[in-house]
Amino acid sequence: MFVFRLFSLCLSVITTLTSSISSESKTLLTCSKFHFEEKVLEKLVRLEHKMELFEEKMKTMESSMSKKLKRMDEIEKETETLTETMLDKQLQIETRINDSYQESIFNFKTQSNNETKLYGEKMDSLFDALSLKSQTLSEAEKERERKMESMQRDSHDEHKWFNTSSDAIVKNFKVQSNKTLQELILQQQKDFNEMLAKRETVAFSAYRSSSQTLSSGEKVIFDGVWTNVGNGYEPSTGIFNAPHPGLHHFTAVLMSDYEKDLSLDLTLNGLRMTRNYLHGDGYKTGTFDVVLNLQKGDKVHIESSSGYTCTIYSNSVKYITFSGYRII
């Protein structure tokens, strides 16, 4: 581009000079030789000056273009450096996200395994305690039967001995003996009934195989039942109604919907005993684990906390459960 302009300028100058010389030639007849040479020299000086100015402009333009090209090279290098830096940052972020995800999965599995192991140990301990109580009750019942046999033998011996006495003594003794024996039998029957009442087994374990959206104060319905000894749990309402008084142990495993909060209360006769609140990313799990001293007819259930509308998550895997049993 610059060469073309230079060539055009030179051509223009030569054309002008030629035209000027031609014009001067026509006036040679009227001008002296010295005057002509002076004019030609003046033209050449002017042309040389113009050429010098043009060369300076060309040098200035070349210097400016060189600087601009150098700056463009620097910008290109900076762009390449920035691109490499951005790629490194992107790789670091992807690596960090992947490591964080793997760590979260590992922590969740570890926590789940620990909780499962802990609940298994608790259940084993409780079943051992229940077996020990049952064994103690069996031994007490055998002891009662042994005493009953002993009393019956003693009564039979006394009855024989009283038969050898006089009719009056026998009659009086029979009256007193029958009264005492009747009282003993009634007392033994009462003790036996109380013992049977204490040995009444109450246990239930229920689950839910689908999600449930809860409004404020709405009950969680665990409509699937694995165990319901004593018929204390009602799967259509989600309420446990204590058929016998005593200490009861309740546990529950809960799961929130994906990236949703969950707030649930375990209630006794409509009063909140404890609350479980889940908050954070992804699916969250929570538990209830309480021991309550119930009277016959007391009602226990799980419901959405007051002022909360939430969804409890489950599917065919049965993520959420509600269980309880009578300890003694």
UniProtKB/TrEMBL annotation:
List, alphabetically, the InterPro entries matched: C1q_dom (IPR001073), Cerebellin_Synaptic_Org (IPR050822), Tumour_necrosis_fac-like_dom (IPR008983)
GO CC field: extracellular region
- Where are the annotated segments for Disordered? 138-158
Q: Where is the composition biased (Basic and acidic residues)?
A: 139-158
Give the subcellular location.
Secreted
State the organism named in the record: Mytilus galloprovincialis (Mediterranean mussel)
Any idea where the C1q domain is?
197-328
Which PROSITE patterns does the protein's record reference?
C1Q
Q: What is this protein called?
A: C1q domain-containing protein
Q: Which UniProt keywords apply?
A: Coiled coil, Secreted, Signal
Report the leader peptide range: 1-20
Q: In this entry, which stretches build a coiled coil?
A: 37-85
